[in-house]
Amino acid sequence: MQWLNLGLFLVEAVVYFSVMTAFLHFRRTLGLGVFLAALGVMHFMETYLAAVFYVQLPFGTVSPGSSIFFAGKLMMILMLYIKEDAATVRQPIYGLFLGNLLTVGLAQILQWHAAVAMPGGRSADMGFLDEMGWLMVWGTTLLYVDAIAIILLYERLGRWIERHIVLRFAISGAVILTFDQVGFYTVLHILIDAPSAVFFGGWYAKLFAVLVYSFFFFIYLKIDQNERWSASSRQIKDIFHDLTFRERYHALLAKAGLDGLTGVLDRGRYEMDGPELVRKSLALRQSISLVIVDADHFKDVNDQFGHQRGDAVLKDLAACLTRNARSGDHLSRFGGEEFVLLLSDTDHEEAVEVAERIRQDIAARVSRPDGTALTVSVGVATAPEDGRTLDLILSRADERLYQAKKDGRNRVHGRLGRF
User: Fold this and answer.
1) Separation between Cα atoms, residue 372 and residue 159, nearest integer Å
2) 226 and 279 in contact (C-beta within 8 Å)?
3) Which SS3 state, helix, strand or coil, does residue 288 take?
4) What is the pLDDT of residue 189?
5) Which residue, 315, 303, 337, is CA-closest to 263?
């Protein structure tokens, strides 16, 4: 009988995970509300089963409501976070918590009714409804804490095992469901005098469920390998924001192609957008110029004043470049203290003038930590004169930047031709 129960346990887990994952996967077609509503309607059954329905498995006395459905819900919330963001995750948790508070409140009012007996002598057990309401409130309170904790732990584990998503998923689930079992069993023991076998059996079952769900999650990732498992660009708020902002912020920056320090476009975005900008300009028979800016003696700034103050200087430099860039220009941090500015529909002479204006503005507005002016060396190249690809004009601009440094720094070099 125990092994039959275990087989049914696995079937229930497969059905739950398959259906809920399908709702999550097709949320763009069906609407996210289908997934969220399915999470919600399962909650009463989870709590009811956890209070009154237990089966014997090889590793103890277990309620499928807690071990399969509640554990599955928490893992689904983590999957929702991975696919969406923390702002989306909070919706079902808040909805469940507030809905259960409403249940408790209405149960108190309903008890004042003078109820009419139904045929057969059946009557409502209002005490049970009230008890279930409070149990559901406690369950969703735990779920709220569990959801915050599992997201936080998942993100922290990313510092050490970033590429091992399934392992992070499994460890996070095992740790947080252990905490949850302690909290939920405590209330069960108080309300219905649940024996200790319920605690240990439920704990083992939740750990087993985590292994099962993690295995299914692995299979789903293989099937869904073309999906991008990252957060969307929606804003993260409230306590989830406080706990996970740094990790999600950098993930959003990476997705947007922004440099995390200066806020301008990063090199990846330059490499993605640049070739197309050059191609379009040449197709329209327009010139496009590239200006590469390098801070002079910047290594000395880091060595003398530390990287933190050096970063502050880079931010000021990026802000000055941003002020001087036109609305259609493409400014990116190429690496270290180098920045690249792509100027569409700009011939070589105009680009040199822009570069000179930038050089002067930086010298006037940006200072090193000791108060002395920060200077930059600048190289300029233009397509089609210097080549018809991004790599070629970058190479020419880099050669001229080197020449500007060789000639004494703090200058713009834009002379056409090879050295």
Assistant:
1) 39
2) no
3) strand
4) 74
5) 315
| Main-chain phi, psi angles of 288, to 5 degrees | -135, 130
- 287's tokens: 């010139």
What's the CA gap between 213 and 227, in Å, rounded?
19
Taking the C-alpha atoms of residue 361 and residue 167, their distance in angstroms, rounded to an integer, is: 51
Q: What DSSP character marks residue 68?
A: I
Count how many residues are written for the chain: 419
Rounded to whole angstroms, how far apart are CA atoms 259 and 213? 36
pTM over 0.70: no
Give the closest residue to 291 by CA, choosing from 376, 380, 359: 380
> Rounded to an integer, what distance in angstroms lies between the CA atom of residue 194 and that of residue 207?
20
DSSP H or E stretch at residue 376: strand 376-383
Compute φ and ψ for 374, nearest 5 degrees: -85, 130
Return the higher-pLDDT residue of 163 and 354.
354
CA atoms within 13 A on the CB side of 196: 0
Whether 148 contacts 178, CB under 8 Å: no
Which residue from 166, 194, 158 is spatially nearest to 60, judged by alpha carbons?
Answer: 194
* Residues contacting residue 362 through CB under 8 Å, at least 6 positions apart: 293, 317, 320, 321, 374, 375, 376
Q: Which of 168, 174, 146, 169 is nearest to 74 (CA)?
A: 146
CB 66, CB 11: distance < 8 Å: no
262-291 pLDDT, tens digit each: 989 999 889 989 999 999 999 999 999 999
Find the mean pLDDT for residues 126-133: 65
pLDDT of residue 289: 96
pLDDT digits (tens, 9 = 90+) for 209-223: 999 999 999 888 887
DSSP assignment letter at 290:
E
